[in-house]
Each structure stands twice: as C-alpha cells, then as structure tokens.
Amino acid sequence: MFTKKGILIVISGPSGAGKGTICKELLKKHNLHLSISATTRTPREGEVHGENYFFLSREEFLNKVEENDFIEYAEVYGNLYGTPKSGVQQMLDDGKDVILEIDIQGALKVKDNVSDGVFIFILPPSMEELKQRIIKRGSETPESLMTRFKSAYQEINYVSKYNYAVVNDTVESAVEKIESILVAEKCRVDRMKEKILDSKEGLIHDQLYD
Amino acid sequence: MFTKKGILIVISGPSGAGKGTICKELLKKHNLHLSISATTRTPREGEVHGENYFFLSREEFLNKVEENDFIEYAEVYGNLYGTPKSGVQQMLDDGKDVILEIDIQGALKVKDNVSDGVFIFILPPSMEELKQRIIKRGSETPESLMTRFKSAYQEINYVSKYNYAVVNDTVESAVEKIESILVAEKCRVDRMKEKILDSKEGLIHDQLYD
C-alpha cells in the first residue's frame, strides 16, 4: 500500500468575500481538516478558542514566532495572524486534506513554503456586494470599513498568484466549484503517481499469452 | 462583452482504455464539440464517415498533409490518422469547447501546438481489464492484439506528459471526474481574466462613500 500525501487547500481572498461561510460548508460536506490559525485579535461574538482561532496574547504569539512555529504570520489591521506549522504538516503527511482559510498576505507566504498547495482566490460577485457583506457583519467601524474597501481593490490584483479564482455569487455554486477543483486536483498527474504504478503492476501480473 | 476562448480537451490513452465511450457520454451531457479526425484505416462496422472519422484514401490524406491541413498526423499500425486544423481553431475562437479523442502519439504532437489544451490520459483499471476490452471489441487479430498489449505497457509511461490521468473503472465515474476537471479548468486564473476584470469594474462604479 502506498501512503498518499494530503492536499493543502488554501481558501483566500479579500475580507468580506465569504471565505468563512464557504469553508464551513466544505467542512460539513467533506472529510477535510481545518487548519486553525492563531491570532492576537479580539474574538468576535460566538467565536471559540481552538475552534475558530487560537486566541493568543501578543506576547504568547511572539514567543511562538521565536520558536519558528508558524508557516507564516503577518500583521493585518494591527493584529497578528499566523498558521501553526506542526499541526498542518502532520495532517498532510497522514494523507489528510487540510483546508486553510487565510487572508491574501498570509496565502502568498504559505505559497513560498508549500508550493504544491491548491491556492483558491474567492472573489465577491461585485464590490457593491462586498460592501453589503462587510456592513452586514456589523463588526466594523466606518474607518475600518473604508480601509477594507480600499485594500480589497488593491488585493484583487494578487489573484494572478493563485491557481484558481471562484466567484462567490452563491455559497452553493462556489462550494460546488471548489468540490470540482478538489476532484480535478486529485486527478492531476503529478499527484497520482501511485495509481499509475498500480495500473502498470496489473500488466506485469497478467498472463498475456493465455 | 468579452469573447472567451474555448478549451481544447484532449482525451487520450492506450487503445482499449475506453476513450471512445467516455467521449460519447461527455458529448451527450455537455455542450461540447467533437473534433473529427481523418484516417486511412478501414471503417469498423457501424462507423460513419464525417461522424466517427473522415475516412480518406492514402492519396487524399497525403494531399491534405501537403496543404498543411493537420494540427498533427501520424502513422499507427500502418494507418494514417490526423487532426484537421481549420475546424478546431475556428471552434475555439468562437468560444466553443472542443473535445479531441486521440492516441498518445497524436496527443503529444497536439501539445506542441496547443499548449493551453487540457490533456487527459485515460487509464484502464488494470491491464487484464484492458485485454478483455480489446478482445470484446472483436476487431483484432491475435497478432494485432499482442502488438497493442506490448505498446500499451510502453505507452503508460507517457502519462507524465499529460495534465490529468483518469482511471476508467466505470464510465460514469470517469465521466464525472472529467466533468470536474472541466469546471476546475474554467476556474483557473489564467483562463478567467475577464471575470476578474468584471469584478474590479464593479468597484469603480460603486459609491464607496454613501
């Protein structure tokens, strides 16, 4: 039997594009494992430590940085965010597919470290829709709202660094597209060397002359 | 409005792997356009000129070669096979997705000319199964059967030149995988520049300050 390495699926895009909802649906429907990020930001209502994020103090976070315990970390809007290294690598080695919801800065750094990850950029159907979503979330001051809009415009340029772009017009259609991307990625020749070997093994054991 | 270029989907693999049945199913279910090859081989029972192949005499075929009318052509088991150039290019330019069922030699030549095609290698579930399928087809002499088996073993090495490999264990599951590959390919960043532009356009027209 062959050990198959898991796939790291990176769901990224401007804030408010709907990354979180999409990841939640994917996790409900598929045997995927969530990489839980660490952050120094204040939990939003209902967010649980160890489930949504590992909520750390700035000091705790910086200690982990010194211990080289992050695949990437970054400061965004004054808060630190990081992707713990050990957990993700272990799951991938065990053949588990890992999903990582992460902002654009973070995704680009992950790409430097995990080049065979699948990098998916979630696009809002329009910027008007993006604005409505951020407002609806209700967690933004007018100032942070403006900061996010402005950066979203710049951020969309980074889509060219990703493998795939999925427009989040409805959660269902976005999730379906990502499901197709996962099936396709598992058919990529560079990911399925074992199956091809199995197929050739079959020939060796065949009696061609009977 | 943007004109979107169609995708060339190349379905290839060893003979007997089930390329033909898979293509037929895909064409039934999706708005895909078949590229019809030309050949000098004798039609099998039920095969129709202009539908399965353009059946040409050797002289007719070589005339077309001289007129540079093939994307690729090759001699396989003593017969000439070729992919007519004009039809395929026109369909792609019109935004139509074109499906091309072709042997491995041919596919590799197409790849030299159409680098953004999607190259899918159909693998038999096992070589025993491949043998049964070729025997069932009933169109082979014992000698040609042996030739095919031997070359199939060599041919599987070429899978590394392809983008995807799909094991044809059942037609349904193989077709589903190819459907996912098509959805995924349409989400590839390098194929969807227009949609991203649309999304940015949305921002320009938004009133951010209201």
SSE blueprint and pairings:
The structure is a homodimer of 210-residue chains.
Chain A: E1 8-12, H1 19-29, E2 33-34, E3 38-39, E4 54-55, H2 58-66, E5 70-76, E6 79-84, H3 85-93, E7 98-102, H4 104-113, E8 118-123, H5 127-137, H6 142-155, E9 164-167, H7 171-187, H8 193-205
Parallel strand pairs in A: 1-7, 1-8, 2-7, 3-4, 8-9
Antiparallel strand pairs in A: 3-6, 5-6
Domain Guanylate kinase-like (chains A, B): 6-183
Catalytic activity (chains A, B): GMP + ATP = GDP + ADP
InterPro entries (chains A, B): GK/Ca_channel_bsu (IPR008145), Guanylate_kin-like_dom (IPR008144), Guanylate_kinase (IPR017665), Guanylate_kinase_CS (IPR020590), P-loop_NTPase (IPR027417)
Tell me what the structure shows.
The structure is a homodimer of 210-residue chains. With 210 residues, the first copy, chain A, is an alpha/beta fold. The first copy, chain A, has a domain at 8-35 and 96-205: 3-Layer(aba) Sandwich (Rossmann fold). The first copy, chain A, is built from 8 helices and 9 strands. The first copy, chain A, has helices spanning 19-29, 58-66, 85-93, 104-113, 127-137, 142-155, 171-187, 193-205, and strands at 8-12, 33-34, 38-39, 54-55, 70-76, 79-84, 98-102, 118-123, 164-167. In chain A, the strands form 2 sheets. Chain A has a 5-stranded parallel sheet with strand order 2-7-1-8-9, sandwiched between helices. The longest helix of chain A is centred in the last third of the chain and has 17 residues, at 171-187. The radius of gyration of chain A is 20 Å and the shape is globular. The first copy, chain A, starts with 7 loop residues before the first strand and ends in a 5-residue tail after the last helix. Residues 203-210 of chain A have low confidence and may be disordered. Chain A binds chain B through residues 120-121, 123-129, 131, 146, 149, 152-153, 156, 159-160, 162-167, 176-177, 179-181, 183-185, 187-189, 192, 195-196, 199-200, 202-203, 206, 208, and chain B through 120-121, 123-129, 131, 146, 149, 152-153, 156, 159-160, 162-167, 176-177, 179-181, 183-185, 187-189, 192, 195-196, 199-200, 202-203, 206, 208.
